[in-house]
Design goal:
This protein is mostly helical. The protein has 18 helices and no strands. The protein folds into 2 domains: 218 residues, no CATH class; 248 residues, no CATH class. Keywords: Cell membrane, Membrane, Transmembrane, Transmembrane helix.
């Protein structure tokens, strides 16, 4: 099957999974709020973020192994694939032990992190359920998912994911409605994760049976290079986790669990929107990884420019939609008592956009294997984010935390990562990239402002939200087309889309 067909199949299956998850997740969340309340919602968000930190033990091994799988998958080198997967399996077993050790070391400090009382729940029991959830990601065959992703067959994961999400969501609703049990809700997540990994593993064993046929090992010299890549990828992963997880932890300590609960509703919206857009970039990443292994830098650079434009269109348009529609949606969904300020919505929309660009840059960097170049950049991003979050939350509340995350992203990822990619990946100057992306942000700002002005007269009802969506979508389509039609990559993108539609 060609790269294009694999990419299309990945996108279609993943989008079906995202839409199904979206509908069921909002059903589960509505029932969760009505039965358990906003404080449990905040507690759930805090524990998720704590275990995002513990998952740092993964060291970025998945990204580094995925990069090394592109070439042998392309050339059908079974011995090489077998050696990499054997090493990967052993690495994940070690990682599981590290996570367990770090979890036990963290246990005495849980009460210091979560200072607000939560009636009817033992936070230590919740803690160990999350330990089990995190370990189930690295045990029970999860390493095999990386092989499917590198081979552009992520649609298999999405196919099984569709079955699992239906069963999981219905079971969660049953437990919440009849038993109002937070513990039962969490246990379902653990069991569903194990079941999904098992089902995917069976498919991998069937389609790649040869990975157990060879007794190949990786030589010491390559292992040294791989560990250098792991360390560099680990630093990038720290940065990603800190940007994702710090907000809730800082808010919990300085503001309280209730605010985290309100915030988590907006995070649910942005997370599902990311899940809706990410299949496109994930498919492009695997395609570009295989493309780079076979084509010239110039051809790869043209694909890079086109994908950069596609990222702007997707995340720029979605960010404008978030700004215009988030509070309307929250009001219609669960009521205006769960609203946060319009300034907060503006900041979270901007953060969403910069996260999208950051994801694109990370995907390209990983596809090129650029792990070690400027590997200490993430440390700077972490320091900026932590310091600004702690300072600004005390002056601007939740808006200060989001502003700190944006500042850390712009001052580091958005400036430094393009230099790495252009210098080491394409051997080109970076100034043209910066100019074009400043232009993109300007176009997004004008489009967002016009959309905001035109939708101010609509009320906070379902019909008002629907009208706002239609008007905003129309403004985005018109202004983005007018503002981008002169770009060569826009014409290339149109051509590529037409080809895909024909196929």
């Amino acid at each position: 099957m060609s790269r294009t067909k694999k990419s299309l199949r990945n996108i279609i299956y993943k989008l079906s999974n995202v839409i199904l998850t979206l509908v069921l997740m909002f059903g589960v969340r509505t029932l969760f709020i009505n039965t358990l309340g906003v404080r449990y919602l905040g507690l759930n968000g805090v524990f998720r973020n704590i275990f995002q930190f513990l998952s740092l033990a993964e060291l970025g091994i998945g990204s580094a192994i995925s990069f090394r799988l592109y070439e042998p998958l392309s050339s059908q080198n079974e011995r090489r694939i077998s050696a990499l997967m054997t090493f990967f399996k052993k690495a994940y077993n070690v990682i599981s032990l590290l996570i367990l050790g770090m979890s036990l070391a963290l246990l005495p400090f849980i009460n210091a992190i979560i200072r607000d009382p939560v009636e009817g729940v033992n936070i230590y029991v919740v803690f160990f359920i999350y330990v089990a959830q995190t370990l189930s990601t690295y045990l029970f065959f999860a390493y095999k998912l990386t092989l499917l992703k590198a081979d552009q067959r992520e649609y298999i994961i999405s196919k099984y994911g569709n079955y699992i999400v239906i069963g999981t969501s219905l079971t969660e609703m049953f437990i919440l409605y009849f038993f109002e049990s937070f513990i039962g809700y969490l246990l379902v997540l653990v069991l569903s994760n194990i079941l999904k990994n098992y089902l995917v593993s069976r498919q991998v064993d069937k389609d790649y049976a040869y990975i157990d046929d060879y007794d190949e090992t990786i030589d010491k010299e390559e292992l040294k290079e791989m560990f250098k890549d792991f360390f560099a990828a680990f630093l990038y992963r720290i940065n990603s986790v800190v940007l994702n997880a710090t907000d809730n932890l800082v808010l919990t300590y300085f503001v309280g669990l209730d605010t985290v609960g309100y915030y988590s509703n907006y995070v649910l919206i942005t997370s599902n929107l990311k899940n809706f857009l990410r299949p496109v970039l994930n498919s492009v990443k695997a395609s570009l990884g295989n493309f780079i292994a076979q084509k010239s830098k110039e051809e790869s650079y043209e694909i890079f420019k086109m994908t950069n434009l596609l990222t702007f269109i997707l995340y720029g348009g979605a960010s404008i939609g978030l700004f215009i529609l988030s509070n309307r949606f929250i009001t219609v969904w669960i009521g205006e008592e769960y609203l946060l300020s319009q300034m907060f919505v503006l900041l979270i929309a901007l953060e969403f956009y910069f996260r999208g660009i950051q994801l694109f840059l990370a995907q390209i960097r990983n596809a090129m294997g650029l792990f070690q170049q400027l590997k200490y950049r993430p440390v700077l991003s972490i320091l900026i984010n932590l310091i600004l979050s702690i300072v600004l939350v005390q002056y601007f509340n939740i808006e200060g935390v989001i502003l700190a995350t944006i500042a850390a992203s712009v001052l580091t990822n958005m400036i430094i990562d393009p230099i790495i990619i252009h210098s080491y990946g394409f051997s080109k100057a970076t100034w043209a990239y910066y100019i074009k992306n400043v232009y993109y942000v300007g176009l997004m700002t004008i489009t967002g402002y016009l959309s905001y002005v035109l939708t101010q007269g609509f009320n906070e009802t379902f019909m008002g939200m629907l009208l706002s969506f239609v008007v905003t979508t129309g403004v985005i389509m018109v202004l983005f087309t007018v503002g981008l039609v002169w770009l060569s990559e826009f014409r290339d993108l149109q051509k590529r889309v037409r080809q895909l539609l024909k196929k």
